[in-house]
Amino acid sequence: MPPIIIVRQLGKTYASGFQALKRIDLEIRRGEIFALLGPNGAGKTTLISIICGIVNPSEGSVLADGHDVVRDYRAARTKIGLVPQELTTDAFETVWNTVSFSRGLFGKGANPAHIEKVLRDLSLWDKRNNKLITLSGGMKRRVMIAKALSHEPQILFLDEPTAGVDVELRRDMWAMVRALRDTGVTIILTTHYIEEAEEMADRIGVIHKGELILVEDKAELMEKLGRKQLTLHLQNPLEAIPAALAGYPLQLSADCRQLVYTFDAQGEHTGIDVLLRRLGEAGIDFKDLQTRQSSLEDIFVNLLRERA
Amino acid sequence: MNLYAIRAIYRFEMARTWRTLLQSIVSPVISTSLYFVVFGAAIGSHMNGIDGVSYGAFIVPGLIMLSLLTQSISNASFGIYFPKFVGTIYEILSAPVSPFEIVAGYVGAAASKSVILGLIILATARLFVPFGIEHPLWMLAFLLLTAVTFSLFGFIIGIWADNFEKLQLVPLLVVTPLTFLGGSFYSIHMLPPFWQKVTLFNPVVYLISGFRWSFYGVSDVGMGVSVGMTAVFLAICLAAVWWIFRSGYRLKA
């Protein structure tokens, strides 16, 4: 099956001269959950905004289910639902009216049964006659998702769906996204939480400074992400790593007071227990220890270093 | 043609009108009534008629136009400015709607609202002064043409404005003076010859003159000229809107 979204050489330079996207190529597979990871300002929202028609591209093209998003925008946009990052809702509309409005706007005739199903799935049914201004932030987020689902899109964009959302709602949201995927909807979500990508995504793309620096299956990426470091603060400075520990991936800090051990947290054996025993045998005492998971930041740095 | 979208936008905008009924309909009616009490009944009774029409009746078309212009502009400009301001415009921009459909929804609703308002003011005026309407169909045509034209103008202002001050600026500094100086309260023949010439550059003169003609069969400028000038202004607004959507001006980065 052809990809549901094909991005070709897509670039965006804003009027200020800022280059938000640098000739990106990307294909989204039909029916997958794709997570777009990246720090703030990396270009995630610009990419989504171009695909959805909110921002004009400077160069390149996007096909959504075979339709060019600029030339054939009507056919393309009918397939797409968008939940933007910002919570923007009309204050005085009711939940029911605002969701019905969205359906009409996307060219679909009234279908109260579908709207009811969407509202029930998102636990909004009891609030259907409430004005939006009376809802909490989490509820407003749900309303925005309901609006995006009102016209039965095949592609759903979720821009930072769980930013500023409590744990319970986050779990609900994940469950909802999975349920949607099971009905055949392709989902593209942006996030800067690795756990979220880990929990949800089939594939992960990393975007940094307007460039797509990596697109990989989650499982493969998680191996890279799974690296951890154990830092031992030594009682007495070491001149060099003892010969007895030569086989370990150990590094001695510049001040000779810290030993850093890098290991794979996903592996069966981390090797920590044996290492600590060997240290004891070698008479090396330590006063403190800590472990640290490599962060998205580290991954970026490593990726960029690899590219350089 | 995405008719569902036009209907959705239209309904959304009309719902806003009913929600803000007091501000939308009642307050212009009250302020117009005050004009009639002061200019029509109190001062007007001490004035001679103009072109054979009593002063109270003479100002009726002008006052309706005054409300029609200001309301069309404020309805339409606010209607499109507000979604830009709160950010809900994202949905309109990402929807499968053409510029024509967006404009039809917003401008259609704004124009409907001001036509309803114009008719209410007309009925209110009838309570204060007796008058007849010689060409009712022309009267309605002028009402509609003006409402649509100035709602389009308001739509443009709403797109252009990037703060609340600008939203008020054009109506306050341009439209209100033009309307007052456009012959709402006098015939332009009452002006000195020089100012009669100057006043012909004011588009509102043609609207009021034509509208008044539909009431009493008398006008400051020819009927054909009135319709022609209104059509020209309509064409200018349409061209501006076309350019806005083509370039994405103030809508898309």
UniProtKB/TrEMBL annotation, chain A:
It holds the Pfam family ABC_tran. It comes from the Bacteria. One of its GO terms (molecular function) is ATP hydrolysis activity. Coiled coil: none annotated. This is Multidrug ABC transporter ATP-binding protein. InterPro entries: AAA+_ATPase (IPR003593), ABC_transporter-like_ATP-bd (IPR003439), ABC_transporter-like_CS (IPR017871), ABC_transporter_ATP-binding (IPR050763), P-loop_NTPase (IPR027417). CDD domains: ABC_DR_subfamily_A (cd03230). SMART domains: AAA (SM00382). Transmembrane segments: none annotated. Keywords: ATP-binding, Nucleotide-binding, Transport. Residues 5-234 form the ABC transporter domain.
From TrEMBL, chain B:
Its main location: membrane. Signal peptide: none annotated. The chain crosses the membrane at residues 20-43, 55-82, 102-125, 137-161, 167-186, 221-245. Pfam families: ABC2_membrane. Residues 19-248 form the ABC transmembrane type-2 domain. Belongs to the ABC-2 integral membrane protein family. One of its GO terms (cellular component) is ATP-binding cassette (ABC) transporter complex. The keyword Metal-binding does not apply. This is Transport permease protein. It is a multi-pass membrane protein. The lineage of its organism: Bacteria, Pseudomonadati, Pseudomonadota, Gammaproteobacteria, Lysobacterales. It comes from Rhodanobacter thiooxydans. Keywords: Cell membrane, Membrane, Transmembrane, Transmembrane helix, Transport.
